[in-house]
Design goal:
The protein is mainly alpha-helical. It has one domain. It is built from 3 helices and no strands. It starts with 6 loop residues before the first helix and ends in a 7-residue tail after the last helix.
């Protein structure tokens, strides 16, 4: 999709006049609004292009960064149950033995 007109093209365009033509003031006012929209669109496009460039750079940087090693705990359910049993024995002591 190519842009055919710039804000400057719209501003500098001159219409031919005819006997029963449009009111020049209304055309000028409407074209002024179009120019403002074009300028706003161009600013938004530039901002989005810059954001896109930054995000691509960040993505590339993260892709090239070595992955953080995942901790290997080696903890199994058996280990957890054993620790829990020891903790209960320590906290409740002889109450667990039914005495």
């Amino acid at each position: 999709m190519d842009i055919k007109l710039t804000a400057k093209d719209i501003l500098e365009h001159e219409f031919k006049t005819a006997v029963r033509g449009y009111k020049p003031d209304e055309v000028d006012h409407f074209l002024d609004e179009i120019i403002q929209d074009y300028e706003a669109f161009n600013k938004k496009i530039a901002a989005l292009q810059e954001e896109n460039r930054q995000l691509k750079a960040e993505a590339e940087e993260m892709k090239n960064r070595p992955a953080a090693p995942q901790p290997q705990t080696g903890t199994t359910n058996f280990d957890i149950l054993k620790r829990l049993s020891n903790l209960e024995r320590h906290v409740f002591g002889s109450k667990l033995d039914g005495n």
